[in-house]
Write a structure and sequence with these properties.
DNA-binding, Arc Repressor Mutant, subunit A, DNA-binding transcription factor activity, mainly alpha, HTH_TetR, Tetracycline Repressor, domain 2, about 210 residues, 2 domains
């Protein structure tokens, strides 16, 4: 975990200050003046950090992706990568996708449908996350990266889809949200269980057995 006592870079501090405004007013509704005001700075100074709204979205995505990369690094270095991955995904669903982040990511996704530049930024993020999942699956199962990709590409994409759907639909306020979250977490566990059954692939391969045999 990062040291919370360390000074926060100015760019990161600005992102923290404007996230709520961006989520509340939306990509089109939040003017650069609104965002500069939320950051407590002049519009001219704000433009020095973020020359466009697309640059803001890219910075938000990049910072969140850096957090994901730290999480995945912890998984790879863990004695039990799959157990650590389950913990991280559960934490992501239950804690990180809170009322502040959920509407923000819903808005960013809505932007992506209207703005090809934003769509490209979001697609690059999802590609990196899928690649990270596949790297973990390759390590856990002992399969070469190319084989792991062929075998688990759909698993990685499905996990990304589940987490994204929880963030975008913001179902936490719905009736039956507890049951829905429980079903979501069981779906994640079932997907990881299917991958985990290939952990003995190294031993099974010698006998010509498929994953899960």
């Amino acid at each position: 975990m990062p040291d919370s006592s360390a000074p926060v870079p100015r760019g990161d501090e600005i992102l923290d200050q404007i996230r709520g405004t961006f989520a509340e007013k939306g990509f089109d509704g939040a003017s650069m003046q609104d965002l500069a005001r939320a950051a407590g700075m002049s519009v001219g100074n704000f433009y020095r950090y973020f020359p466009s709204k697309a640059a803001i979205v890219e910075a938000i995505v990049r910072r969140d992706l850096e957090g994901v990369e730290r999480d995945f690094a912890a998984v790879v270095s863990s004695d039990d990568p799959m157990a650590r991955l389950r913990e991280i995904l559960r934490y992501r669903i239950e804690v990180e996708l809170c009322e502040e982040d959920a509407p923000l990511w819903a808005e960013i996704t809505a932007m992506a449908h209207r703005n090809p530049e934003i769509a490209g930024i979001c697609e690059r993020m999802e590609t990196e996350i899928r690649r990270a999942f596949l790297g973990i699956f390759a390590r856990v199962t002992g399969q070469p990266p190319a084989e792991a990709e062929a075998r688990f590409a759909a698993h990685a994409a499905f996990l990304v889809m589940l987490v994204r759907a929880w963030a975008l639909d913001w179902p936490q306020k719905r009736a039956g949200a507890v049951e829905l979250k429980s079903l979501l977490l069981r779906s994640i566990d079932a997907t990881l269980d299917e991958v985990a059954r290939c952990e003995a692939q190294g031993a099974s391969k010698a006998r010509g057995l498929p994953c899960g045999a």
